[in-house]
Amino acid sequence: MxxxxxxxxxxxxxxxxxxxxxxxxxxxxxxxxQKDERGVGDxxxxxxxxxxxxxxxxxxxxxxxxxxxxxxxxxxxxxGGKPPDIVHLASFEFQKFADNGWLEPLDGYIKDAKLDMKGxxxxxxxxxxxxxxxxxxxxxxxxxxxxxEMLRKEGLEVPKNYAEFLVAARKLTKDLNGDGIIDQFxxxxxxxxxxxxxxxxxxxxxxxxxxxxxxxxGKVTIDTPxxxxxxxxxxxxxxxxxxxxxxxxxxxxxxxxxxxxxLKTDGPWLWPIIQKGKAKDQIKLAMSPFSPPxxxxxxxxxxxxxxxxxxxxxxxxxIQIATSDKFQSSYATLGASPPPSPRADxxxxxxxxxxxxxLVQATKAAADAKVDRIPKGLELVFNxxxxxxxxxxxxxxxxxxxxxxxxxxxxxxAEALQKQ
Amino acid sequence: xxxxxxxxxxxxxxxHWLGNLxxxxxxxxxxxxxxxxxxxxxxxxxxxxxxxRLDQARRPFTTANYERLFASEDFWNACWVTFKLVIxxxxxxxxxxxxxxxxxxxxxxxxxxARLLVALPWAVPEVIAVVIFAWLFDSSFGLMNWxxxxxxxxxxxxxWFSSPSASFAVVCVVMIWKGYxxxxxxxxxxxxxxxxxxxxxxxxxGASAWQRLLNITIPSLMPVLGVTLxxxxxxxFRDFSIIYVLTGGGPLKATQSLSIMTYEQAFGFFxxxxxxxxxxxxxxxxxxxxxxxxxxxxxxx
Lengths: 420, 301
Fold this sequence. Notes:
- The structure holds two protein chains of two kinds.
- Chain A is an alpha+beta fold.
- Chain A is built from 17 helices and 13 strands.
- In chain A, strand 4 (about 125-130) and strand 5 form a beta hairpin.
- Chain B has a single domain, classed as MetI-like (MetI-like fold, Orthogonal Bundle).
- Chains A and B meet through helix 3, helix 4 and helix 16 of A and helix 7 and helix 12 of B.
């Protein structure tokens, strides 16, 4: 392990030597929303440290922008002609930037560096107009977190499929003090906020029912019996108040961590929240009862096309460090999350994080089933599509509409969006 | 002409130069931060552009954004939502603002504290106030549901933000709560400028409190009322953060005002040209509305 890490470091250093000579006194701009995130933020810090150590005279100016304002800020920076050199974007928003020609194609860089991206989780998402414009930095799979004590009190086993999940969710949704207000919910989903998150929450049920928003060719496939079944399931969960209503994702996670929700399907980021919650000792993890589990690409790294050639070369060096086996392995340890690289050594992470193997299993299950939050053929209109799906689903619940009619409406509207 | 004499700004014929020179930085600044972006925005609204970029070549002129806008149900819905908000919130702010202004204009024990409490919502940062209200009206654990159930007004919790009418009502409540102190402060200042002699003379003539309010207080307040009305209506018209944080424009676009629609099209869907067209229409409506109201205000005296 030590030898291979040393070899990688040596190779990277040698490779970077030529660009370093050209880059004395340079500052590369890197904007990210993950700067202060525990684990992942530390990992980015280590990549920057390595880059600066191997590129004397080159500094990285690392700025944090809140996720809520991120798309606005990046749009403004690009629109003003001052893009950051190192481009960090969410995987559902980079397409608009690529469509404007603002992201440098990476095919040539990958080829020259002989970077092996075979089996790299979620990397397909980075192909835009037949060109690779980014490298995927996180692909995740959902697992099930459950409150063992709540299940035990009701004599319930850990649910292994939707039917068992529904029974458990119903039994665990309770008004504990008889005041007419539900104090404990069977499960928890975000039903307020952005369309993207709303869609992800729904996908627990639509994917398990066999539904997909679109097929591999990018044709919309919402008006199908499988999607109708998935929508019916979502309607049941929300309309029967098995989940608290009108809460943002962060609030739902906190409620789960504090013991007010019994079952929660979520990604690797739930673990640090559980650790700080009141019900920390009662919570256990298992594979998601839904098959395939929700999964998806999360964030990408790219090069701004408008920056000087020397800077592009330096940013590529930065990407090479981030995608190297050494740093993909440390991503697993620091980020407590499976890295996208299939070559990463995750043995240390498995020892440190008790549920790491479960995360790997969940990620693999989602990746094998080619699950992604961004439907094929709808990438460029993803935000509008997600908003439409959220609104039509809300209409289904508020106006008690037949899921069959809702699926047909969604199909028609999605096709119209594709033709825009 | 000697150079020194030409630059002598103290000469009577050059004095206006000095004035212009001193005004120049302000004019330049206004031009840069108001007129130029306005020009860019109007220009963008006539181009088919997604993410705009200032250094890129101008796209061909088109009226497609406006054609699409006027044919869009969402636009007319946003106009209707904005109109309802302006009417309901402005009326609410005025009634509550007038009532509290009249109350704290009287001398009573604790008047200073009452004035402070009346003005307090104005001082609370908008986003913080909205987050507090979001929790008060939370569907699962909010205080309002608890109070309603305890009072026996409802037998089950209300999903405040899942119902179009309930969420619209919550937005109105928060906007009125946040906006009435401004009306109250403005009217209080107006009330204090009315000479006490007017009231004393009216009392001698046997005028009741109601008659004094109708015949002295309200007519004397008309100039202040006119300006305050314009400012409150414009605030409601363009307010973004209360609705965005509270409902995001939902559910089912029940609270989607023009400002929310503009933001969503620009930064949610990256349709800058289309968003600019909405912005231009909003600006035109604001100019017409304020011009009409400001022009009418003095006549009401």
